[in-house]
Specification:
Layout: H1 2-6, H2 17-24, E1 28-32, E2 37-39, E3 47-53, E4 56-61, E5 67-73, E6 78-79, H3 81-86, E7 93-96, E8 100-106, H4 107-116, H5 118-144, H6 147-161, E9 172-174, H7 178-185, H8 189-201, E10 205-208, E11 211-214, H9 217-222
Amino acid sequence: MVMDFLEGVFIFVGLDHEQLLPLSDKLIRRSFRRGEVIFHQYEPGDQMYIVKEGQVKISIMSSGGLEKDIALLHPGECFGEMALLDGSNRSATATSLGDSEMMSLFRFDFLHFMGEHPEVAYEINGLLVKRLRIANEMVGDVVFLDVPTRVAKQLLALAATYSGNLSEAGHIVVPIGQEELARLVGASRETVSRALASYRRMGVLTTANRRITITDLPRLKGMTDF
């Protein structure tokens, strides 16, 4: 089971069964409850994590106590590797969104394995570049886009993730509440709620029970054309 899981993890995609076998003995299985913090921003980091089951949100906190979600992670995705690479403290907080299961790997074992398999270092580098591009895009969105457009853009990204999660009518169901969406967008809940209400009136989506059902994906996409 562990080996089957590892072979599907993005950063290990270039490795075969035999290459991954030594790593399976180093991984530690850990379970978290809904809302449980996996690690806090600014604390020292000695482990990286891979999502096995459930979801994890990555967020940053301002000095004034404002929270901004910057990523939602799903099975097969890793996090916490930055602190292992440069020995610095955590740059963000990781929180389990529901009951979840992680596989963790200590810094020594991670660096040793990466040294033996340079292709993993290549994939990690690609992952970090992708995250940097996403961060740059977030900054641009906050500066140049209004909240309704940012909401539409974020919902399109979530729709791609949950494309297999369909309602009886075949519409995409995104399991997220308005508060969580507001933190991803970087706006107040009230402003995001007004944007969603506008999209509901247009027939683009419906909302109920912490779920957003996208009923007109092409029209939602049109809201981001500029």
